[in-house]
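Section 3.1 - Work completed
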Amino acid sequence: VIADYITKAKLKKDLGSHAAQQNVEYRDSKSRVNTYFGTLATRPDDIFNALDDLQLFIPEKEFTFEDLRRNTWLNPYWAFYITSYARKMLIEKILIAPHAIVQYDTDRLYYRANTKDGNTLEKALEKFNAECIAKNKRQFKKIENAQFLDDLGTWDFDETYSRFLCLGAKKYIKECNGQIETVIAGLPKSAIPKEIVTKGLRNPFESYN
């Protein structure tokens, strides 16, 4: 896991975020990092039974702790804890400045920058990042290329968007430096911008509202 994370982080730094997305090695390492957690917290016997019986779901069995330990690569309670802790962190940050929040997903916040509440939230995020980086430096100091692990678990700061339209969970349109960017669950990020060009839409923020 650490080796793949280092590869992903190094390529992102060397190539830049947008160029890295087109790099096969970057995408492979990123996909492995993203799947490790889910894979290790999965009950393989349930999956195999479901596939053998051609069923999408099978009834839950009464699992004891020993059943869980034997039938899961990673103790699922550990997976539950990590997921719950991540949500706790998200909610804590929202409660710092709830009036500044425009939109949030499972792992990100969009907020009004250059406002009193927005600045308060930004300072809290920067403080968290500084503490996290200090811990990572202590934890990984003996690992080769440990500098690429410094920001593990920290918040990334994206561009500042001039306009933002929320259409629902994981569905929004944003504008940065005159360029339209979209996140629509289930669609590639290029889908809506291509449609905007094809249809000649002058104001997508009104057309998609």
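Second construct:
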Amino acid sequence: DTPLSDRPQIVLTGYRTDPAQPAPGEPFTLTYSLSNVGGGEARRLISALGGDNGAALKPFAPFNSGNVKFVPTLKAGDTVDVVQQLVTDAASDSGAFNLPVALAYDDTRDQRRTDQQVMSLIVRRLPLLRVSFNPAVMDAFVGQSVQLNVDVVNIGRKLVNANVVEVSSPQMDIQNGSLYVGALDAGASTPIQAQGIPSVTGPAEVVV
């Protein structure tokens, strides 16, 4: 057997995604770092996302390439960044998903060594909300209060934890513009009855 002082040891030392929190149905780039913390050189390093056969990849899938990457050599003390394009299943929910990485490599005596390590990727499903004024506000006067009735509708297929919906405007003083919503089921709506007092003339921008 290879002495411990000459034996390579590959460790997953970090990873990141771009974007930082992938969304369902969207491709993203995963970059993960493999470091040789052992005493010998690693040769013919193979890194396989989701295990050797990729069975544990879900809810992710390779995009524009396979799940396996090859590194010819990795000297003791060196680190290599492995870049993999993936896409998240469009039906997946928000959450943290474990993604195993199967590693196989030879030491300097051509003894094959295997290992498996795990990273955790966070998926965030963006809410689909429709915001409208009912009725629409066409005219307002400086210093006079105007009613801002806002309807927020969840037009997505999943429940949304909206927490707080807030109405603001750089040209108006908003009153009663913050509402705790909490869970909003698919197709459900919530009204906000705010008041705005214009401080300047001209068009006013209202942000929800």
